């Protein structure tokens, strides 16, 4: 018969070996792949991945009993600003246990936050370097910011206190600026936040012409829930988004990778609202200054033109006076010349008339009669030849003192 032992005996031997070789807790490096809490206890699944292929090469169950968990959890979170979650690399002090019924497991007694901080920092640095090598870190920052950012695409949780604060700040701005916010709801913490925020960005992109800027805001949650904003895929999508992104995710001390790639980063949702209001206030002031500048320029131009017109009027008046005197003298000279010419012309014409009158007098019948001549007419017509009369014609002879009639006899 083949020598054999029962399963329980084998399990016990394994237990004995483990207890003998792992009597004290050991420090173990691993990644948390699953984590859940129940009745104050914490149940985890730890894994190790191959550095090259990222395939899982080891896996183990782990527990943190409530008596330990209620101390370890706040200690870890306050030290790292991170909550224990899936995807986190940890260094834990664990008691190796083996049960014939439940198998191999680790009971965590302590955790080293310094290791996790270093792992997070290294991972964060790796993501930043990758984004820089791909040349996307400054793409969103280089986008021109709208002059009047009023059409707002907001990514946030509808129930988040920060979203309410943001909306109240916009609505109650003292300058009464109008804003048109549109909420695209998303999960803002935990493992699902990355995919949810990216999905919201995709929805905004479908109607991108309706918006001026994107605002990613979060507020009211624990600072330990901010690790999702150090995610490569989320940072890559935000960095390459074609609208300026304002990040106001509640970091008071640290700067997330999302803050680094966003166009503008502010500490809180309220600060994001104040930033937008300040932009409109600045444009309002610029407009006021422009109006004043135009008004001043118009006034100065008006003053200059009035002065120019006054000078022109003065020159015209002076030119008018000088011209009037010149024209008056010219007219007077012309009048004098005309008078002289008229006088000379009158004298000339008078002499001509006298000569004509003299000629007329010397050639007139009256003048001839007075000098002893007579004029003979036949039927009112003056006779100059005997051939004009015949025997029996009655003719009239005109003398200086009268006339008489006679009959031609021969």
What features would you highlight for this structure?
single chain, 410 residues, alpha/beta, OB fold (Dihydrolipoamide Acetyltransferase, E2P), Rossmann fold, 3 domains, 5-stranded mixed beta barrel, 5-stranded parallel sheet, 14 strands, rod-shaped
Characterization of the model:
The chain folds into 3 domains: 7-113, OB fold (Dihydrolipoamide Acetyltransferase, E2P) (Beta Barrel); 134-282, Succinyl-CoA synthetase domains (Rossmann fold, 3-Layer(aba) Sandwich), CATH 3.40.50; 368-408, no CATH class. Helices cover 46% and strands 22% of the residues. It is built from 9 helices and 14 strands. It has helices at residues 7-21, 66-80, 113-133, 161-171, 193-206, 232-239, 257-261, 269-363, 365-370, and strands at 26-38, 41-49, 56-64, 89-99, 103-111, 151-156, 180-185, 213-217, 245-248, 264-265, 375-378, 381-382, 394-399, 402-407. Helix 7 (257-261) links the parallel strand 9 (245-248) and strand 10. Helix 4 packs parallel to helix 8.
């Amino acid at each position: 018969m083949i020598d054999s032992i029962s399963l329980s005996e084998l399990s016990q031997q394994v237990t004995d070996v483990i207890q003998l070789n792992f009597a004290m807790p050991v420090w173990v490096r691993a990644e948390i792949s699953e984590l859940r809490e129940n009745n104050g206890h914490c149940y985890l699944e730890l894994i190790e991945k191959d550095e090259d292929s990222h395939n899982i090469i080891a896996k183990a169950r782990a527990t943190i009993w409530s008596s330990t968990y209620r101390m370890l959890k706040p200690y870890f979170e306050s030290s790292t600003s991170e909550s224990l979650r899936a995807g986190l690399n940890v260094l834990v002090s664990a008691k190796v246990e083996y049960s014939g019924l439940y198998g191999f497991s680790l009971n965590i007694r302590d955790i080293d936050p310094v290791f996790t901080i270093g792992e997070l920092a290294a991972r964060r640095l790796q993501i930043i370097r990758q984004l820089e090598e791909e040349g996307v870190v400054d793409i969103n920052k280089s986008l021109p910011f709208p002059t009047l950012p009023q059409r707002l695409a907001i990514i946030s949780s509808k129930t988040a206190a920060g979203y309410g604060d943001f909306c109240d700040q916009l609505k109650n701005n003292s300058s009464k600026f109008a804003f048109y916010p549109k909420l695209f709801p998303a999960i803002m913490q935990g493992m699902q936040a990355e995919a949810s925020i990216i999905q919201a960005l995709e929805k905004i992109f479908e109607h991108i012409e309706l918006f001026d800027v994107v605002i990613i805001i979060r507020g009211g949650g624990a600072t330990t829930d901010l690790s999702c904003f150090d995610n490569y895929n989320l940072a890559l999508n935000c960095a390459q988004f074609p609208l300026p992104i304002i990040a106001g995710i509640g970091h008071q001390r640290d700067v997330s990778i999302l803050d680094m790639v966003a166009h503008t980063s502010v500490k809180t949702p309220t600060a994001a609202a104040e930033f937008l209001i300040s932009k409109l206030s600045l444009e309002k002031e610029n407009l006021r200054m422009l109006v004043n500048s135009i008004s001043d320029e118009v006034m100065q131009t008006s003053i200059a033109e009035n002065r120019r017109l006054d000078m022109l009027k003065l020159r015209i008046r002076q030119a008018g006076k000088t011209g009037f005197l010149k024209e008056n003298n010219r007219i007077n000279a012309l009048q004098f010349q005309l008078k002289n010419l008229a006088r000379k012309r009158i004298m000339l014409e008078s002499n001509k008339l006298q000569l004509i009158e003299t000629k007329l007098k010397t050639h007139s019948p009256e003048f001839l009669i007075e000098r002893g001549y007579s004029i003979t007419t036949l039927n009112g017509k003056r006779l100059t030849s005997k051939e004009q009369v015949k025997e029996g014609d009655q003719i009239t002879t005109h003398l200086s003192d009268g006339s008489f009639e006679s009959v031609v006899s021969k």
